[in-house]
Amino acid sequence: MIARKTKRYWVYILESLKDHRTYVGYTKDLEVRLTKHNSGQVKSTKHRRPLIILYKEMFQTKGEAKEKELWWKSRGGRQELKKLFY
């Protein structure tokens, strides 16, 4: 029997230690993605480094992860983010 690698997708929220703004995204490899953000390889965050992970959540499908990412970017998600972290 061949072992199948479990697919996982992460929704994450980063906070800039420079300006305290947040960034929401999703990825298959959270460690690699955080490294890309902090090394300046991501256009939208390269001027806001360093960044730390405020929140992360794992999903089994890409669709679920994208749905949650969109929710965090919505008005309701932003309000929840403020309640939880600020």
From TrEMBL:
Family, similarity comment: Belongs to the UPF0213 family.
InterPro entries named in the record: GIY-YIG_endonuc, GIY-YIG_endonuc_sf, UPF0213_domain
Record's signal peptide: none
Domain GIY-YIG, chain residue ranges per copy: 7-84
SUPFAM superfamilies: GIY-YIG endonuclease
Protein species of origin: Candidatus Komeilibacteria bacterium RIFCSPLOWO2_01_FULL_53_11
Taxonomy, superkingdom: Bacteria
Pfam family, one: GIY-YIG
Protein name as it appears in the record: GIY-YIG domain-containing protein
